[in-house]
# Entry
Amino acid sequence: MQKIESHACFGGRQEVWQHLSGVLGCEMRFGVYLPPQVALGPCPVLYWLSGLTCSEQNFITKAGAQRYAAEHGLILVAPDTSPRGEDVVDADGYDLGKGAGFYVNATEAPWSRHYRMHDYVVEELPALVDAHFPTTTARGISGHSMGGHGALVVALRNPGRYRSVSAFSPIVAPTRVPWGQKAFGAYLGLDTETWREWDACELVAGAKARLPLLVDQGEADEFLDRELQPSRLQAACEAAGHPLELRLQPGYDHSYYFIASFIGDHIAHHARALKE
Ligand SMILES: N[C@@H](CCC(=O)N[C@@H](CS)C(=O)NCC(=O)O)C(=O)O
# Structure
């Protein structure tokens, strides 16, 4: 592991690290915010999964999350959104390939060689983070858009591994909208039955644990009707009896201005569960 950046921030440090990922078969970067409380002992970790076109930089430079993480004593970990490097296959368009890993394990060539973001986020990265930083075993997960889908799916697929989950403007039903259908068709193949295990609305129906979901969605989001469709998650949660707090925020769009406006609420939500 190599430290790429280190900045004093709200009494703690914002760092960027690079490492060779065995799961993804390439060099990867991630952001880690260490709050001032790490000087006193181990802290819980909140993982953040970013959306299409993002790297590890977008969240750490735009969301303003460090202020709240410093208040609550949470470590923040923000990975990249896909495998990277010259060896890694890419596609035309911002919604497939690099910057668009969709947090699934690809089964189809040529994607299956590197695109295994689920296992990277759930297995390899937490093991690395726990080995290098003063963490407790308490983990939460959140994210935005493609990363909101990632956070919901990762939490629902891995009961017991995360104590809290939330999402901003998530793609709640990727099997039913263009972004998800394009990515899943490439990464998972044409048998749409296999897609269902990567769709939050499908997973809610059969979830073994009923971890409450907190979701914020801007009503002026340019992707609301075509790609996001939060009413599908509301219907799935109602049918399954799964706890959901869905907050529709008038006037807010899909950008990090929206995330910055409500990230304090989300970090407080995670801190309540992670510091129990
Ligand atoms: N309008 C964007 C669509 C992608 C987009 O809105 N990405 C969101 C996540 S789905 C984002 O976080 N972008 C980076 C940023 O705002 O910093 C484009 O065409 O590149």
User: Anything to note?
Assistant: Residues 256-274 form the longest helix (19 residues).
